[in-house]
Automatic annotation (TrEMBL):
Organism: Spirosoma aureum
Transmembrane portions of the chain: 28-47, 68-86, 92-114, 126-147
Protein name per the record: DoxX family membrane protein
Upper lineage: Bacteria, Pseudomonadati, Bacteroidota, Cytophagia, Cytophagales
Matches recorded under PANTHER family: DOXX FAMILY MEMBRANE PROTEIN (PTHR36974:SF1), MEMBRANE PROTEIN-RELATED (PTHR36974)
Domain of life: Bacteria
Keywords for this protein: Membrane, Transmembrane, Transmembrane helix
Length: 150
């Protein structure tokens, strides 16, 4: 949910800047969505790289080397997020982020099922932890619309 609020806030801010500056590039929702996606995935990816040990608890016990998985997902989030900005890499980056979100979904299920706290000191209430599962498809739709909905 916090990630979604970040996406929406950044996109709205960029649109507002475009409106004030009368900048047609920023008055295009797809462009604002692309930059919001880049910003949020780069930020979350850097968090994965900076503090991987704070996220390893989310990985199910049967998965090997949780720390390495967190680090790899962080690198992927940064690289794919940046790839969204460039027209030459945008489609590949979009598919990569969609696949990454699908691959990370079991970690969010693990958090909900095992009543673990969500990352980032967010509310550990069951409604919040379970609601995070509903946002994963929304992120996929967001990426899809930003890239393929033109």
């Amino acid at each position: 949910m916090a990630f979604f609020l970040g996406l929406v806030s950044i996109a709205a801010l960029l649109y507002g800047i475009g409106w004030i500056a009368q900048n047609n590039y920023l008055l295009t929702f797809h462009n604002d969505m692309l930059w919001a996606t880049t910003t949020m995935f780069v930020l979350i990816g850097l968090m994965h790289l900076r503090k991987p040990d704070q996220l390893t608890y989310m990985i199910a016990n049967f998965m090997p080397n949780a720390r390495l998985l967190v680090l790899l997902s962080g690198v992927a989030e940064v690289m794919l997020g940046i790839g969204m900005v460039f027209s030459e890499t945008r489609i590949l980056a979009a598919w990569g982020l969609i696949l990454l979100l699908m691959a990370m979904f079991p970690a969010n299920i693990n958090v909900a099922v095992n009543k673990l706290p969500p990352p980032g000191n967010l509310p550990a209430k069951p409604w919040y932890v379970w609601s995070r599962l509903l946002f994963q498809p929304i992120y996929i739709i967001w990426i899809w619309y930003a890239v393929f909905g033109r």
